[in-house]
Design a protein that fits this description.
The chain is mostly helical. Helix 1 packs antiparallel against helix 2, helix 1 runs antiparallel to helix 4 and helix 3 runs antiparallel to helix 4. The chain has a single domain, classed as Four Helix Bundle (Hemerythrin (Met), subunit A) (Up-down Bundle). 93% of the residues lie in helices and 0% in strands. It has four helices and no strands. This is Lipoprotein.
């Protein structure tokens, strides 16, 4: 009888230890998931802050370029206009992906005025009156975006 009791006791002890290991594994998996969730939340918050910072910096740079373009149009300096116009598009590409989900209406308006402004700056001959109007509208939209991004 003793060997049977020993065998039963050993089987019970083994079963209990396996069940205990299983719950420890689940517990550590749960803790790992909670850690991952907290990390994702932290990363998401950091991405939003970076996104807002990128938008503000990008809009400031674009406003500076658009203002320079306005001065060049007023001065009639076609050579500088042809260099400055494309800089608007290059700058926009650096942060437009941050703007699109956050401010879809303003994103569309920037695109609406940016594309013809850049194209007009590359035209030969340059239609200064039309380009000046497009640039002014672009500046207005960028000012709206700047206000929203604060």
């Amino acid at each position: 009888m003793k060997p049977i009791h020993s065998l039963i006791a050993l089987t019970l002890a083994g079963t209990l230890s396996l069940v205990g290991c299983g719950s420890t594994t689940n517990s550590s998996a749960t803790n790992s998931n909670q850690g991952s969730q907290a990390e994702k939340t932290t990363q998401s918050t950091a991405n939003k802050e970076t996104s807002s910072t990128d938008i503000k910096a990008g809009v400031t740079k674009m406003l500076s370029i658009a203002t320079d373009l306005k001065k060049q149009i007023d001065a009639g300096d076609e050579a500088k206009i042809k260099v400055t116009g494309p800089q608007l598009e290059d700058t926009w590409h650096t942060f437009e992906d941050s703007v699109k989900p956050k401010y879809p209406d303003l994103y569309e308006n920037v695109e609406k005025y940016l594309d013809p402004t850049v194209a007009g700056s590359k035209a030969n001959p340059i239609d200064k009156k039309t380009l000046a109007n497009l640039d002014e509208q672009l500046i207005q939209v960028l000012n709206e975006l700047e206000q929203k991004a604060k």
